[in-house]
Specification:
Layout: H1 21-27, H2 30-33, H3 37-53, H4 59-78, H5 90-102, H6 104-107, H7 115-151, E1 156-161, E2 164-170, H8 171-196, E3 198-199, H9 215-221, E4 226-227, H10 231-236, H11 239-265, E5 273-274, H12 293-316, H13 331-354, E6 356-357, H14 359-366, H15 373-382, H16 387-402, H17 408-415, H18 428-431, H19 441-464
Parallel strand pairs: 3-4
Antiparallel strand pairs: 1-2, 5-6
The structure holds arginine.
Length: about 475
């Protein structure tokens, strides 16, 4: 029998010659899957211990391979690991090096395992960590929103529909609206984590193996909550990548919506907030400029996150069972989306944390007479007038005001009565928002406490992720 040389491909026995340069150039995944080295080594060590328990490897062989894998890990940690030209992917590179270190014992590492169950295992382990990291970023942004909401006290601003001023809302209410959408994002991430926490190790290439391994024990060794039930499904399932990409896309969309508002809020036209210099950018030509580039990129990069999701869905759409090389295309979008989301969450959190709100500009915009129109109609409702008629009556006053007859306050006091003057006091209409979950000071105080309890629950759940 031929001895395997370290330069040989993993399938050299079957092939007369080596791979063409064009094939290697097109098919290598090492440039992007090298970041899986840590989970790959961890997975291999669990597999080797499993082979030991199954009696496939002797105790000294297990020790040798585990020690070689520890050495390889140390080389990665120290930055001294050397990739070779023939290293097609991270699995090939690690196995090649283990064989160099442990010789024959290392050559037994791949017993009862295929790169198909190996990559599925690696990617699940990596995604578990990634979800925990993204979730921590979401929690951090929520903490910033909550603390800014708490310290905003009585500040209020116009609430908008159709980007037209509609009714005044507390600033805390507006900030927490985004914190609640992030709460759903977290919930989705925890849910995706739970569903992906299944070990595919032991599925082999597609059908399992004749060797007496115990996939449940390696699953436990790797800290997976459960183990696959169907080997074909185990090696071909990338639902967890698609789900994670969706969850990240929606986080991206939420950051984009925050970004769009901050572009508006920091414009001279709105003037609701000023960015800290550290979180703004200048212009190369226009000396006066201070731009909200983080907010704009949150908007811009959400397109890329959506692209990563749709690209993967298209890749998965028509794949026959089980493994196909197409699946290698799962990694770049996943890595990119995770990286961009983590960066985006931190940048937006820093931007909001350090910005200065211009409460008087907000109040001035919110105190505009017209924002009290709904309260006038509700005032008439309390007098027993049906809402439709009240709406029309106030609408006529608005029409007379718009035509230039008088301001709405004076018209209301004259036509409806002096008791409606209070809605036109500064903050008057904001204080009228008293219903549960509403935008006025009393329901918002309740909401702040409720949100802060939910946030603590999320922090506890985050701490429980393996
Ligand atoms: N680089 C491959 C991937 O990411 C690893 C699995 C290769 N399996 C195979 N049968 N060629 O999917």
């Amino acid at each position: 029998m031929d001895e395997q040389k370290s330069s040989d491909s993993l399938w050299h026995g079957r092939f007369a010659g080596g791979p063409a340069e064009a094939l290697m150039a097109y098919t290598v995944s090492l440039p992007f899957d090298r970041r899986l080295w840590e989970v790959d080594i961890r997975g291999s060590q669990a597999h080797v211990r499993g082979l030991g328990r199954a009696g496939v490897l002797s105790a000294p062989e297990v020790e040798d391979v585990l020690a070689a894998l520890d050495d390889v890990r140390a080389e990665f940690v120290a930055g001294t690991f050397e990739f070779r030209e023939g290293d097609e992917d991270i699995h090939t590179a690690v196995e090649r090096r283990v064989t160099e270190i442990a010789g024959d014992a290392g050559a037994r590492l791949h017993t009862a395992r295929s790169r198909n169950d190996q990559i599925a295992t690696d990617l699940r382990l990596w995604t578990k960590q990634a979800i925990a990291e993204v979730a921590a970023g979401v929690v951090n942004l929520q903490q910033v929103l909550l603390s800014r909401a708490r310290e905003s006290g009585e500040a209020y601003l116009p609430g908008y529909t159709h980007l037209q001023r509609a009714q005044p809302v507390m600033l805390a209410h507006h900030l927490l609206a985004h914190a609640w959408s992030l709460h759903r994002d977290l919930d989705r991430l925890f849910d995706a984590y739970r569903r992906l926490d299944v070990s595919p190790l032991g599925a082999g290439a597609l059908a399992g193996t004749s060797i007496a391994i115990d996939p449940a024990s390696t699953a436990e060794d790797l800290g997976f909550a459960s183990v696959f039930s169907n080997s074909l499904d185990a090696v071909s399932d990338r639902d967890f990548v698609a789900e994670t990409l969706f969850d990240l896309s929606l986080i991206g969309i939420h950051l984009s919506r925050i970004g769009e508002e901050w572009v508006l809020w920091t414009s001279e036209e709105f003037g609701f907030a000023r960015l800290d210099d550290a979180y703004a950018t200048g212009s190369s030509m226009l000396p006066q400029k201070k731009n909200a580039d983080i907010a704009e990129l949150a908007r811009g990069k959400s397109g890329r996150l959506i692209g990563n999701l749709t690209g993967l869905l298209a890749t998965l759409k028509a794949l026959p069972l089980a493994y196909n090389r197409d699946l290698q295309e799962d990694k770049e979008p996943l890595f990119d989306s995770v990286e961009q989301t983590v960066l985006g969450l931190a940048a937006i959190a820093g931007m909001i944390d350090t910005a200065v709100f211009d409460r008087s500009r907000m109040a001035e915009a919110a105190n505009a007479d017209l924002l009290a129109a709904t309260d006038l109609a509700e005032h008439l409702v309390r007098r027993g007038i049906p809402f439709r008629q009240a709406h029309a009556q106030v609408g006529q006053l608005v029409r007379r005001h718009v035509a230039g007859e008088a301001n709405l306050r004076d018209l209301a006091v004259a036509e409806i009565g002096p008791d409606c003057a209070e809605y036109f006091e500064p903050g008057g209409a904001t204080r009228m928002r008293t219903s549960p979950g509403g935008a006025g000071p009393s329901p918002v105080a309740v909401q702040i406490e409720m949100f802060s309890a939910r946030l603590q629950e999320s922090i506890d759940r985050l701490g429980q992720l393996g």
